[in-house]
Amino acid sequence: MSRGERAERGAPRFIAQNRRALYHYDIVERFEAGIVLRGSEVKSLREGRVQLTEAYGSIERGEVWLRQMHIASFSAARAFPHVEKGARKLLLHAKEIRHLERAVLREGYTLVALNLYFKEGRVKVTLALARGKKSHDKRAVLAARTEEREAEQEMRGRRDRLLARGVKP
Question: How far apart are CA 54 and CA 2, in angstroms?
C-alpha cells in the first residue's frame, strides 16, 4: 500500500492527541500551526513516539514556542540526537501571534497543544486558546458523561430485549 492509498491527499493523519487538555481546560479558540523540527524528530513522529500531555505554548519576542512536548530520540540518529523535551518554534501568521499574545497577557488564557498530525507531508499542531476549568466544572462534566453512558446502556438493553423476543424496535 503506497502513501497515497493510505490516506487521502491533504487529509490529516493524527500522530498524537492530548485528551487530558479537553478535561482540564475550556477551549475557546483553535489554531493550526506548523512546527520547526529536525529530521530525527520527524522520524520519531512517524513512529508515533511523542507525548503531548504536558505540552503548552509560550510567546517570547513575537514568536510562539511549544514547550514540554516529549519526542523520543530516534535510534539511528545517535551521532546528532535531538533534545527530547526542548522548545520547538511554531509557525503562525503575525496577526495570529498578536491575537494570542493579547489573550494570554491580558485575559489570562493558556496556550495548550491539542493534537499533532501530518497534513500534506508536513507536521502540524493544533494549538488551543484555553481557560482552566474549576474542580466543580470537572465534576459536572463527569456527571453528565456518566448519565449519558447509563442512558445509552439502558436503551441498548431495551433494544436487545425486544430483539430477543422477536420484535423489531
Answer: 34
Quick check: 12 pLDDT over 80? no
How many domains does the structure of the chain reveal? Answer: 2
As to burial, measured by CB atoms within 10 angstroms (0-12 exposed, 13-18 middle, 19+ buried), residue 118 is middle
Q: State whether 78 and 36 are in the same domain.
A: yes
Q: Rounded to an integer, what distance in angstroms lies between the CA atom of residue 46 and that of residue 49?
A: 8
What cell numbers appear for 103 in the block?
A: 489573550
Q: How far apart are CA 125 and CA 66, in angstroms?
A: 9
Say if residues 16 and 51 touch (Cβ distance below 8 Å): yes
Three-state secondary-structure class, residue 42: helix
Q: How many Å apart are CA 112 and CA 67, to the nearest integer?
A: 10
Report the distance separating Cα 127 and Cα 146, nearest Å. 28
Q: What is the DSSP letter of 21?
A: H
Domain that holds residue 129: 3-133
The CATH number of residue 19's host domain is 2.40.280.10
pLDDT in tens, 113-136: 999 999 988 899 999 999 887 777
